[in-house]
Specification:
Order of helices and strands: EEHHH
Shape: flat
Radius of gyration: 16 Å
Number of strands: 2
Low-confidence stretches: 85-90
Number of domains: 2
């Protein structure tokens, strides 16, 4: 028996066995290049990580880090015409 991984675009539900093909598809839906999408995903991941750290412990350094990451994320979204619907942290 063979098994393989299928990747699916979150926007149009296009399926492919190629991760890069779906990554490109998602990037084009956002109006970004491949490298811009990678950077955006990294910013989102850093923001979520900062939020997770704050949920377990709060100090001035963690709050400052979250503010910096949030500022970078919002700046990227503003410069590329993206909405902040993916950000989840209260």
């Amino acid at each position: 028996m063979k098994s393989y991984t299928m990747y699916v675009c979150e926007n149009c539900k296009k399926e492919s066995r190629s991760r890069d093909e779906i990554y490109w598809c998602e990037a084009t839906h956002l109006g970004l290049s491949y490298d811009q999408k990678k950077w955006y995903d990294k910013l989102l991941k850093n923001f979520k990580n900062a939020c997770a750290k704050l949920s377990t412990a709060q100090n001035d350094e963690l709050l400052k880090n979250q503010d910096i990451v949030l500022e970078l994320l919002e700046s990227f979204e503003k410069n590329h015409g993206l909405k902040d619907g993916k950000k989840i942290c209260e």
